[in-house]
Amino acid sequence: MFLLGKTQTLIVDHFADAGAYLKESTGRDTVLLPARQVPEGTQAGDLLTVFLYKDSEDRPIATTACPALELGQMALLKVKALSSIGAFLDWGLSKDLFLPFKETAGELKTGQEVLVTLYLDKSERLAASMRIDKLLQSDPPYEKDDKVSGRVYAVNPEIGAFVAVDDKYFGLIPKQELYETLKIGDTVEARVIRKRPDGKLNLSPRRKAYAQLDPDGKTILEHLEAAGGILGVGDKSDAALIKTELSMSKNAFKRAAGHLLKAGKIRVFEDHIEEVK
């Protein structure tokens, strides 16, 4: 039987004005390869490697074009258009790939790149889904403190940001490690803070505390300069305020502020800090 969403090799059965009709070696059913895609010199009995999908009238059709992904695979695709029922993605074929809203994971925008998989819906039509968790592997070649890169494919404020490390492995930035707003499609550089027994990775976009002192100190000085030398966060400030103002935890702030204090670059008070000029 024909396999929608898969590349396969079929036999040229006969020709018509519309193109070449192909069949399997043991079957009788045929599928059309449009005339514009039939290789020059093709004859009946020849073998052609094609990809099968459905046309705009929901009929199986063959193409010699190579789509960005096949059934069960993952690929990064660009959003070409949005509609009231979903999005349409560019996957390398003349007919765009439909991504139903029920298979999305967050707000989408035209031009955005999203990591998706290809599946057959209940009507036996090919569609895209951003629900890729089950396809992500859990045997990465990474260990604690290794640096990795990946792409955010889902965000849950109660859990954290889900990251496809190398677009292949499962990663999670827990919410307590999120000190900046991440959105679907963002690429992140992170450090492995834990490799779970099941092989999945917990990540942090921040370096170890001692290595983070310089960038955190720079962030504090930049905010001080922008605020005219006085910033409304101090030693006794609430953690939520510090996170809002500086995108870092209270502990990170206190470490970096202490480092700057010892260096004579700032003065620290309970409710604010001042730049030393």
Features:
277 residues, mainly beta, OB fold (Dihydrolipoamide Acetyltransferase, E2P), five-stranded antiparallel beta sheet, 38% strand, elongated
Short structural summary:
The chain has 277 residues and is mainly beta.
Kindly give the count of domains: 4
Report the principal-axis shape.
Answer: elongated
In the sheet with the most strands, the strands line up as 3-2-1-4-5
CATH fourth-tier homologous superfamily of the largest domain: Nucleic acid-binding proteins
Radius of gyration: 27 Å
CATH class assignment of the largest domain? Mainly Beta
Proportion of beta-strand residues: 35-45%
The mean pLDDT is 90
Q: What is the strand tally? A: 18
Q: N-to-C terminal Cα separation, in Å?
A: 78 Å
What can be said about the biggest beta sheet? 5 strands, antiparallel
**Uncertain regions: pLDDT < 50 for 5+ in a row?**
none
Descriptive report:
- The chain is mostly beta strands.
- It has 4 domains: 57 residues, Nucleic acid-binding proteins (OB fold (Dihydrolipoamide Acetyltransferase, E2P), Beta Barrel); 60 residues, Nucleic acid-binding proteins (OB fold (Dihydrolipoamide Acetyltransferase, E2P), Beta Barrel), CATH 2.40.50.140; 68 residues, Nucleic acid-binding proteins (OB fold (Dihydrolipoamide Acetyltransferase, E2P)); 66 residues, Winged helix-like DNA-binding domain superfamily/Winged helix DNA-binding domain (Arc Repressor Mutant, subunit A, Orthogonal Bundle), CATH 1.10.10.
- It is built from 3 helices and 18 strands.
- A 5-stranded antiparallel sheet has the order 3-2-1-4-5, with no helix packed on it.
- α1 crosses α3.
- The model has no long low-confidence stretch (mean pLDDT 90).
